[in-house]
Design goal:
- By secondary structure, this protein is an alpha/beta fold.
- The chain has two domains: about 180 residues, Phosphoglycerate mutase-like (Rossmann fold, 3-Layer(aba) Sandwich), CATH 3.40.50; about 50 residues, no CATH class.
- Helix content is about 45%, strand content about 15%.
- The chain has nine helices and six strands, in the order βααβαβααααβαββα.
- It has a six-stranded mixed sheet.
- It is globular and about 50 Å long.
Length: about 240
């Protein structure tokens, strides 16, 4: 059986990413810069032998997946599905607001002076989810257990199905906090990986119900695609 490997990609840079607004379940399209970087990523990934592709059902993730598949050698033939379980976290009434609103109130709920003070300490994702729920005046934010269940089941189901069907590589487009949270579920010694870059690739190996982390926040595929495009333009 072929090794089962997930290539989990953070979506391209969006309008809200650019102007510092909290996105969550709200959505904005990729900027021109965001599209360009994902175009480079697609070129860098075009030779990877993917068996299938997935994204969350958010527009920015689907847009990212389409650009990558357009560049892929066999993109038109690859099965592609969306899965709402691998969406970003929902920030409730704070969705769409400026990042300063979310990261201004959440640290205070957790008795920290500010965001920097909070991130310098060891907080858990469960504490973070509880604080977001407390800050959400609309009562839309998800409890920790629900986020944990949907995130784990979403990625694990994708990996398990691929393993059952002979293994191979799977492309998945998801979101920064969701990917970071998944990594913490695999290895709880990791710090909060909130610095995942747009277009970065995190690779996981899956074997008989267990994940192993291969690489986190890998930007080499973007660099390879950028180099190839630059060389073509010089010809």
């Amino acid at each position: 059986m072929t090794e089962t490997k997930l290539y989990i990609i953070r979506h391209g840079k969006t309008m809200f990413n650019t102007i510092g607004r909290t996105q969550g379940w709200s959505d904005t399209p990729l900027t021109a810069e965001g599209e360009e970087v994902i175009h480079q990523l697609g070129v860098g990934l075009k030779g990877v032998a993917f068996e299938e592709a997935y994204s969350s059902d958010s527009g920015r993730a689907m847009q990212t997946a389409r650009i990558i598949l357009q560049e892929h050698t066999h993109g038109e033939q690859l099965p592609y599905r969306t899965d709402k379980r691998i969406r970003e976290w929902c920030f409730g009434s704070l969705d769409g607001g400026y990042d300063g609103e979310l990261w201004g109130v959440v640290p205070r709920i957790l008795a920290f002076k500010n965001y920097e003070d909070m991130m310098s300490k060891s907080i858990t994702y469960e504490e973070l989810a509880s604080a977001i729920m407390a800050a959400d005046t609309a009562d839309w934010a998800e409890p920790y257990e629900k986020i944990r269940e949907r995130t784990w089941n979403g990625f694990e189901d994708i990996a398990h199905r691929r393993e059952k069907n002979g293994g191979g590589n799977v492309m998945i487009v998801s979101h920064g906090l969701t990917i970071s949270f998944l990594l913490s579920l695999i290895d709880d010694s990791l710090p909060m990986q909130m610095g995942l870059e747009n277009g970065s690739v995190t690779t996981l190996l899956y074997n008989n119900g267990s994940f192993t982390i291969d690489k986190i926040n890998d930007l080499s595929y973007i660099e390879a695609g950028k180099k190839e495009l630059t060389e073509k333009n010089l010809l």
